[in-house]
From TrEMBL, chains A, B:
Organism: Pontibacter lucknowensis
Protein name: fumarylacetoacetase
The family this protein is said to belong to: Belongs to the FAH family.
Stored InterPro entries: Fumarylacetoacetase, Fumarylacetoacetase-like_C, Fumarylacetoacetase_C_sf, Fumarylacetoacetase_N, Fumarylacetoacetase_N_sf
Keyword Calcium recorded: yes
Length: 423, 423
């Protein structure tokens, strides 16, 4: 059988070489249109393949999959069918879209019913998020923060190289790309002020992250080893962990970030499967000291994914302000999931686990304004001549990501959100 | 109309004066039995009233409520109908159970179909928890912890009297009373050890808490004022926030508690409504300094609820080890919910908001082993002659709570869980 990742594959749909969605990608998402209620789709070039329509026309017949799982407002029920089924559906979609297959391409009515232009659909939240954890797994980010706020000589706390540090976040306020966000109100206290005040955050920031979505549950008490984790990870999205730095500084001791984060987190709508990312596995950074055995892993579990952040002022142009890469992660996803479940905490289908800010080694690769402007001391100049220390009202923040090898580009599309003034 | 809280009300069901569930209480829960699949019930004396059966027999006809909302495995769909409907159903149930009403009591077939002994049912999780926050709102608890771990002279951190400090917790591992828990494995590091190790927690603790459940959603960007909060709170349960102190110490800097909490939290199965607790409102502690206006409230929002923790060794007797009261809370629930939503974070139906450990002013009212034994330096002696610094394998921890006034006792039943050894 031809593998769905084979660089030699071509589709009967014309796809630009710059597209994030060649036949080797086939990410899953939830869309609606003027004529279609929310359902599961797969991105292919500039189109969406409507899996609900594909299933209705018996094109998944040999898979023995309940066709109604594609007619749902979230991917959860499809994902819950397990990795063999995700893979079988992806392989079958690959087959249907291949240039040597005419099951859809040879039938103009089917083409019309199953394919819809991306410009004609609205993308919705891909999953109903049951639980959300945010990790803190980039050593460059943790070092930058520790240097700024604590001690440059002891930037990393003693636990950092032993534990994939993380905290529970708010699931309800994770929203899909394209949804405007509001600058949050909150309590802050300037270091020299006698008392705190309440009002719009003045230090609104983004954090460039990648999140993985789990597709298999465990029971309370079960643990997942890093080597088993691949079977639990359905796919990945880009994740903007919006942060109000002034609120965070005042609230976070001793129980961690709370309202500084929970006002919104934005994600990209297409879930790129671990299968699609297989060709882009790379070795991660050397871990020294060696992690404890429950965090031990075999094989490569980092991924070479180019990441970029762009800032677009109201009516202005996109300014590229950061280029980073997911391969920089010190702790990989398999270790994160193993750690999360090491106390017996049960994993659910649709959980979201974000990486933490992905900063690279040099200044242009820092994944937040906090680091890029070094706490606002080194503002960024934009193409329209204006400066930014943090994010202004009406600014749009865009994150994009893609992996590329052997001429094949597997991308995430983007996560994009405009900041509206506080209410 | 007679109010459902009226102390003069009596039911045609015989109810012991020591029962937590007189006709003035009427808490909601989800139960199943040998012959009934999961559904909504109301506790009355030693019985459960099956609301699914009540609705099927058209006894809710005048309420215009979809009868199928009572035939669900969680209360969420019923709760989502809003406060006027919770109240109307509670009032109607009160009417049906009153000694001057024979709609059920006068029909032996109906009695048999609608009433079932509590000893014949299994209680399930009352709600599907979408989001869970744990606050830290007892000044005595925060002071005890600050005294032990930081500085007795500056036990409270500077933000504590300005913010109802809280953090996001793990929703998936909240489980119902009666479910055994496993001692968690985790990473810990003794102060004098060169490196951390992984294994069963040695300092397993409970935290005595009360949690409220929200029954009305907000949109992203909306804020709830403390004076509006009563309309969002459906009811309360007892909450045991299991904690692994040795894991917590090592992991919690800088992002807060994580795996030290997420292995399990146990709740009592009956949700006592805010309406049932109305007669037990009391003034809370004086808040000085005065909170910022967004946390300002009118009326009394503390509740006089007696709380008790009991420890029962394997095959042994219950030992009362703590008596506290929910009235001690420095920050009330209305302020907690206002704070949670003050940044625009959206509230969902079925969210759970726990109080944080409820310690009172004296040593017998401390709500955790950490405080009761002062970090293990003053062990508790049990009736069988054994000692406890923290919780042992096969110990059962039981929490009970009730309010009492004018001879009427409105109780929560209990939350009870046995600790099994680590896997």
């Amino acid at each position: 059988m031809i593998k769905a990742n084979d660089p030699a594959l071509h589709s009967w749909i014309e796809i630009s070489p710059e597209s994030d969605f060649p036949i080797q990608n086939l990410p899953f998402g939830i869309f609606e249109s003027a004529t279609k209620d929310p359902r599961v789709g797969v991105a292919i070039g500039d189109y969406v393949l409507d899996l609900c329509a594909v299933a209705q026309h018996n094109l998944f017949e040999l898979l023995d999959v309940d066709p109604t799982v594609f007619h749902r407002p979230y991917l959860n029920d499809f994902i819950a069918l397990g990795k063999p089924m995700w893979r079988a559906v992806r392989n079958r979609v690959s087959e249907l879209l291949r240039n040597d297959n005419d099951e859809i391409s040879g039938n103009s009515r089917l083409m019309q019913e199953c394919l819809i232009k991306q410009s004609d659909v609205r993308m919705l939240m891909p999953v109903k998020v049951g639980n959300y954890t945010d990790f803190y797994s980039s050593i460059e980010h943790a070092t930058n923060v520790g240097t700024m706020f604590r001690d440059p000589k002891n930037a990393l706390l003693p636990n950092w190289k032993h534990i994939p540090i993380g905290y529970h976040g708010r699931a309800s306020s994770i929203i899909v790309s394209g949804t405007d966000i509001r600058r949050p109100n909150g309590q802050t206290k300037a270091p020299d002020a006698a008392a705190p005040t309440f009002g719009p955050s003045r230090l609104l920031d983004f954090e460039l992250e990648v999140a993985f979505i789990t597709g298999r549950e465990t029971r309370l008490g079960d643990m997942i080893s890093p080597d088993e984790a691949d079977d639990y990870i359905f796919g990945l999205v880009l994740f903007n962990d919006w942060s109000a730095r002034d609120m965070q500084t005042w609230e976070y001791v001793p129980l961690g970030p709370f309202l500084a984060k929970s006002f919104a987190s934005s994600i990209s709508p297409w879930v790129v499967t671990l299968d699609a990312l297989e060709p882009f596995r790379v070795k991660g950074p050397v871990q020294d000291p060696k992690p404890l055995p429950y965090l031990d892993f075999h094989g490569d579990h980092n991924y070479d994914i180019n990441l970029e952040v762009l800032l677009q002022p109201e009516d202005g142009q996109e300014n590229s302000i950061c280029r980073s890469n997911f391969k920089h992660m010190y702790w990989n996803m398999n270790q994160q999931l193993a750690h999360q479940s090491s106390n017996g905490c049960n994993i659910q289908v649709g959980d979201m686990y974000a990486s933490g800010t992905i900063s690279g080694p040099d200044k242009t690769s820092y994944g937040s304004m906090l680091e890029l402007t070094w706490r606002g001391t080194q503002p960024i100049e934009l193409s329209d001549g204006s400066e930014r220390k943090f994010i202004n009202d009406y600014d749009t923040v865009i994150m994009r990501g893609f992996a590329e090898r052997n001429g094949i580009r597997v991308g995430f599309g983007e996560v994009k959100a405009k900041v509206l003034p506080a209410l």
